[in-house]
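Practice problem. Given the sequence and the SMILES for pyridoxal-5'-phosphate, write out the predicted structure.
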Amino acid sequence: MILSKRISQLQPSPTVALNNKAKELAASGETVFNFAVGEPDFTTHPDIVQVAVDALQAGRTKYGPAGGSPAFKKAVVEKLKRDNNLEFTTDEIVVGVGAKEILFHLFLALLNEGDEVLVPAPYWVSYTAQIIAAGGKPVVIPMGDDHDAARLTPEMLEEYATEKTKAVVLTSPNNPAGYIIKKDELTALGQYMENKDWWIISDEIYEYMSYTAEHHSIAALVPGLKDKYLLVNGMSKGFAMTGWRVGYLAAPKPVSKMVKTLQTQSSTCLPPFVEEAATEAIKRGKSLMGDKIKVLEERKNIAAELINSWEDVSMIPPEGAFYVFIDIRKALEASNDYQATESLKFSSFLLENYHVAMVPGEAFGVPGFLRLSYAVANEKLIEGLNRLRQALDKIK
Ligand SMILES: Cc1ncc(COP(=O)(O)O)c(C=O)c1O
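Answer key:
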């Protein structure tokens, strides 16, 4: 029997696959340096855990309202005003099972067959798969070669836009590259898009992890974008709540209504005890994780200093999230066994022989790079990077 042609084009998430391989090695008794994970190594704040425990014990174990509880939506509206200088009403907010589900439903709600979505590389692995699953066409904007230059410009959008362009995805702070689109760059992009009939999907899930540059929401800088601005955020990264699966959307009513309808026909709602805990976390905001964010910043500095001391690799300056995107093309090119773009082959070699897991750039549309997640303890970070150095020396 023939299965769906559309879904047959998809590959399982490569980050999940690599993680599984690293876990298998660890289960067989090996010490593995796993830099492939996309989650903080901290546990959720105990106060937040307590809210969920209390709600469970009080018997709040039934279905919750589709699209989100009034308390959660109110907390989101207040957060957006407080942190992002954005005005939304509660009926423009929709909660979902992680930002991942929100994005999936969003693409389903926005796209008709053949509609194009501009996706700047390097991109988070699921955007392209979800766009294809929704019947759209991801149009990848290649990354510029100058690691210090603006990551995305109006000219780059202009070059890849067609009359079929329906939406653009912006991810800042960026996964996998750790860059932040600066205020002036974001303003220029916003002013350019003000006259375009495109949805702007702004994935701001790493907003609390902004170290050397400030995070801004594009619609706060260019208010004229508000009727096409679709903000996606969630609790996974900034609150160390990956396993709780809470994401949300803030969008004009026709879009939020459709995403909510999709939820009523799929996951229905969030577990109410999870939503209660998330409401408390969102109210407490960035201060809840305060010192933890500093710890991540320290690790970023450790990683960046080591990598910067190697002459055959470079990196995109890491400014946010918890990733360093390492350009190993020069090192690969110097080897007889590798081509400059063969980071997938090198990442297998690195895992099998040095027990270091890093996601190859192929997963993010930019071969020749490795993504290092520095959400691991300092000693592990240093030892893992030393092993990476040994592996690079080995292939010389
Ligand atoms: C850029 C980006 N967006 C969205 C997500 C999805 O987050 P979640 O579904 O855990 O809320 C991730 C997770 O890795 C991410 O890196």
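Check your answer against the key. The chain has 15 helices and 13 strands.
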